[in-house]
């Protein structure tokens, strides 16, 4: 009895078998099904291309001599398709001349099986190339993950080298100036200096807090304690520490959160999201501007929260790059406030972990609207 390593159908893509003879399709189907593979039989080249385009196969067994479109032509078109060119193609044919085999391989085929079929040979060749292809896909996935990790690392060092150094330098400069000129300063000047130092310290604290939260997120150390909770008190607590910097800039913050709206979320995490976005709005809204925080229930068991400002707005290019780690999007606020861009990336991660999404509507010179969704009830209840 032939022994073969079986393949789980639920975890692996199908094998596309292309042959114009029904008996060959049945025989190959029986062989491959016995090896644990799920197959999709097709009787002509044009249909094969349509099927592969709709759902990418894990391997293709392709007959050469078919009416209409030959296997050679099918393979050529497969290799010209960016989404299918990497899929391994094993040619099957009664042709055994070396010229035919070489032509098939030159067109991009990875192997060649001659008729009549031998079950052991078919399974052995399919197993080899199927596994090689799956391994190559896994390597590409790992390479992409490594690139993302490197981008994350680069972003981290960029923030430490630039964005964290700036607030510290400003803070140190203020303390040095006070130490050297304290005897010559008026009480009003001392008050202004201490207020600037407090604001600088608050900026550093928020940046460090975001850095630590972001690092814990990357390490998978943040646990989410989701529960159904009223939204209005969460928002009130979130913006409490932002009211002072908003007051300094003469920015009015208005809330429109219906008392009956609830969310299914981690209270502390949601507060971090709201605090970051509202703080961002304060930074990029000129003196005398307005910010509105509102919420409404949607028809999809979600709550949509919007934070609208009358700030400087963003270009479409900036919006596209806003939540990307590999692109620098930081810019100073309207009063020179530092901004790393990390807070918004953190918000996106937190919202998506809750099963929601975030997006931005903005126009330069006219302000921005940040919108995100959060479930409003426990789906398991």
Report on the structure:
The chain has helices at 22-34, 45-54, 71-80, 98-106, 119-163, 165-181, 187-218, 231-239, 243-248, 267-283, 316-321, 342-353, and strands at 15-18, 39-42, 59-63, 89-93, 111-114, 226-230, 252-256, 262-266, 290-297, 302-309, 358-363, 367-375. By secondary structure, the chain is an alpha/beta fold. The strands form three sheets. It has a five-stranded parallel sheet with strand order 2-1-3-4-5, sandwiched between helices. Strands 7-9-10-12-11 form a five-stranded mixed sheet. The chain is elongated, with a radius of gyration of 31 Å. The two termini are 52 Å apart. The relative contact order is 0.08. Mean pLDDT is 85; it is low at 1-10.
Q: Describe the largest sheet.
A: 5 strands, parallel
User: Per DSSP, what share of the residues sits in E-state strands of 2 or more residues?
Assistant: 15-25%
Number of strands: 12
Which regions have little confidence, pLDDT < 50, spanning 5+ residues? 1-10
What would the average pLDDT be, to the nearest integer?
85
Number of helices: 12
Shape: elongated
Along the chain, the helix and strand elements come as: EHEHEHEHEHHHEHHEEHEEHHEE
Strand order within the widest beta sheet:
2-1-3-4-5
Structural class: alpha/beta
Cα-based radius of gyration, to the nearest Å: 31 Å
Proportion of helical residues: 40-55%
From the N-terminal CA to the C-terminal CA, the straight-line distance is 52 Å
């Amino acid at each position: 009895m032939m022994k073969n390593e079986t393949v789980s159908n639920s975890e692996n893509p199908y094998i596309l078998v292309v042959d114009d003879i029904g008996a060959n399709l049945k025989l190959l189907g029986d062989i491959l099904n016995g090896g644990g593979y799920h197959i999709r039989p097709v009787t002509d080249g044009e249909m094969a291309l349509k099927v592969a385009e709709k759902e990418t196969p894990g391997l293709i067994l392709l007959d050469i001599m078919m009416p209409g479109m030959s296997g050679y032509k099918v393979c050529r078109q497969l290799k010209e398709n960016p989404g299918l060119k990497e899929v391994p193609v094993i040619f099957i044919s009664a042709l055994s001349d070396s010229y035919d085999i070489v032509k098939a391989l030159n067109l991009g085929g990875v192997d060649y099986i001659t008729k009549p079929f031998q079950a052991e040979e078919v399974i052995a060749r399919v197993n080899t190339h199927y596994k090689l292809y799956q391994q190559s896909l896994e390597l590409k996935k790992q390479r992409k993950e490594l690139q993302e990790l490197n981008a994350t690392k680069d972003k981290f060092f960029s923030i430490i080298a630039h964005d964290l150094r700036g607030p510290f330098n400003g803070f140190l400069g203020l303390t040095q100036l006070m130490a050297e000129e304290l005897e010559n300063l008026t009480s009003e000047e001392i008050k202004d200096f201490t207020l600037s130092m407090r604001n600088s310290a608050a900026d550093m604290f928020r940046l460090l807090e975001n850095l630590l939260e972001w690092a814990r997120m990357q390490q998978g150390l943040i646990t989410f304690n989701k529960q159904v909770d009223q939204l209005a008190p969460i928002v009130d607590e979130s913006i409490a520490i932002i009211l002072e910097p908003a007051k300094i800039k003469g920015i009015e913050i208005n809330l429109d959160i219906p008392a009956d709206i609830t969310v299914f979320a981690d209270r502390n995490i949601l507060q971090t999201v709201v605090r970051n976005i509202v703080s961002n709005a304060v930074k990029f809204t000129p003196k005398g501007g307005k910010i509105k925080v509102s919420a409404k229930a949607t028809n999809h068991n979600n709550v949509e929260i919007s934070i609208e400002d009358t700030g400087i707005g963003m270009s479409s290019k900036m919006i596209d790059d806003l939540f990307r780690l590999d692109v620098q999007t930081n810019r100073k606020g309207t009063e020179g406030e530092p901004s790393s861009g990390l807070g918004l990336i953190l918000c996106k991660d937190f919202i998506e972990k809750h099963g929601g999404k975030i997006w931005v509507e903005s126009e330069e010179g006219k302000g921005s609207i940040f919108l995100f969704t959060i479930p409003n009830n426990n789906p398991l209840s």
